[in-house]
Amino acid sequence: QVQLVESGGGLVQAGGSLRLSCAASGRTFSRSVMGWFRQAPGKEREFVAAIGWNPSNTYYADSVKGRFTISRDNAKNTLYLQMNSLKPEDTAVYYCAADQSVLGPIMTMSHAYDYWGQGTQVTVSS
Predict the structure, then answer these.
(1) Predicted confidence band at 1 (pLDDT cuts at 50, 70, 90)?
(2) Which of 62, 79, 97, 110 could form a disulfide with 22 if both were Cys (CB 3.0 to 4.6 A apart)?
(3) 3-class secondary structure for the chain?
(4) pLDDT, position 96
(5) Per-residue model confidence as pLDDT tens digits over 8-64
(6) If 0-12 CB within 10 Å is exposed, 13-18 middle and 19+ buried, where does residue 42 land?
(7) What is the DSSP letter of 84?
């Protein structure tokens, strides 16, 4: 059974930092695209960042570019999202996602991902 479990969310003041982790189990994703999405209250789920099977291949939403960094540790089967200079508008539930295909391209659409975590809340106070 495949599981993605996020951790690291919490409450932080504007300008602060958080590091999210996503531990995968049940299969290895070392050759699959993984990504982060978020959903704020009353809004649709939106793409945040993705990383390819080649970890040097990353892609970010314009809203987080320069502030967030996605990375992966394939030995630990774990995905990370370092979030710096946080803003109140970053407040949302953050979800980890993984593509079941191998050596696929980076995608930004949520329906392209097959496995999802339960989400972790990030709240940024002003």
Answers:
(1) confident
(2) 79
(3) CCEEEEECCEEEECCCCEEEEEEEECCCCCCCCEEEEEECCCCCCEEEEEECCCCCCEEECCCCCCCEEEEEECCCCEEEEEECCCCHHHCEEEEEEECCCCCCCCCCCHHHCCEECCCEEEEEEC
(4) 98
(5) 999 999 999 999 999 999 998 989 999 999 999 999 999 999 999 889 999 999 999
(6) exposed
(7) -
| pLDDT score of 102 | 86
**Which residue do the tokens 């504007």 mark?**
14
76 by DSSP, 3-state: which? coil
Using alpha carbons, select from 116, 126, 45 the residue that is nearest to residue 87: 126
What is the rounded average pLDDT of the residues 60-72?
98
Tokens 């970053």 -> residue: 90
Q: If you search the block for the tokens 């709240």, which residue do you land on?
A: 123
Residue at 85: amino acid letter: S
